[in-house]
Amino acid sequence: MKVVTEVQNPLQVFAQMESEVRSYCRHFPVVFAKASGHTIWDAAGRDYIDFFAGAGALNYGHNNPVIKEKLIEYLTKDGLTHSLDMATEAKEALLQRFDEVILAPRGLRYKVMFPGPTGTNSVEAALKLARKVTGRHTILSFTNGFHGMTIGSLSVTGNRTKREGAGMPLTHTLSLPYDQYMGDAMDTAAYIERLLEDGGSGLSLPAAIRAQAEIVPRVDPVVYRNESTSSGPLSAEQLSFYEKNGYLNLAGFFAPVEVQYFRDEMKRLWEENSRSDRKEVIQEPESKEVRSIFAVHRDNEVFRQLSRDPRLIAMIEQILGSAVYLHQSRINYKKGFTGKEFYWHSDFETWHVEDGMPRMRALSCSISLEDNVHYNGPLLLLPGSPLPRSNVFMVYNSVENRLVAPFSGQQPRPDYIATRE
Description:
Elements: H1 12-17, E1 32-36, E2 39-42, E3 47-49, H2 53-56, H3 65-76, H4 89-103, H5 119-134, E4 139-142, H6 151-155, H7 160-164, E5 173-176, H8 188-197, H9 236-245, H10 256-272, E6 281-283, E7 290-294, H11 296-299, H12 301-307, H13 310-320, E8 324-332, H14 347-355, E9 362-368, E10 379-382, E11 385-387, E12 391-398
Parallel strand pairs: 4-5
Antiparallel strand pairs: 1-2, 2-3, 6-7, 7-8, 8-12, 9-12, 10-11
């Protein structure tokens, strides 16, 4: 006799009662019961690591205990949970704290707009704001983008299936090719710029692009001038050059005997750390040769004295307009032929986001210790001055610009990379 067992569909209730407009749940054929941190449990008690995380919204995890405690406390006190856009004590506290932590340290004077609690609400608000401010209607969007399921968000979404869900024409938008959409040979950014610049392209000026290109004024000064500026070692001409170009190239600053002294110590450190597993020692990914050594001002007497050289400090304090301290130091070794490249990058974004440096009141001092020849991996860092990568690199920060909590909300980088004291 055969025994027939009917398998119950765990999503049967949802299939019978809920609209066909369901998406994510179709990929997860279980009913979930509870969640904590990065773990969720289904109704049968099986646990899962939640990489989905609310499509990225749950960056603090499910039911974070600190947030949960505050929410329960707020509800227990009968705090308002629905107030539309009316003024409440909770909103007032949020705005004040947001200004203290985010806006004020950056010198920003922005207004805060509260849309609905979803990503598509924010997109809709941005579209309306751009059109309202500029008086123009067309929005440029990019191929393959997805921005939400409301009408405005669908109009700037690239996915054909999602767009068809609108059930109506999606107008006043133009989809343009994103990076490498047309292949490696085509610079899509240049293509878009040409369309915008050429009055004969047939493209109306879109809502969120300035009618005329303009240079946005720098918020922070380059040279922090005060009553002591004119008495420093740098001339008025040198300060003006630095202010205009952002660098000074001081060839022959150190005597040959001093340079050789630093070279010898750099070589000794390279040999001493050739098999080191210290966290301060960075190795080449394949050869495992020493690539960089961090915190040399802290751990090595020769480079500690170099970092405090009165000739350097006087110039740096003249530019930054205050006493300074060393934010970071390292030696970079760039081996000829085999040394891996150092990619070009801008430093302040990292110091700001990951270290918590409030303003651009800092500067980098790179001391080249090698002759520049074609085989030792030079990098054109300064116009007219190819700089080899065997160098001492030090970052000085104003004492009036000391680090705060990282502006990314992440944990600070370790102190051998970013000095916090």
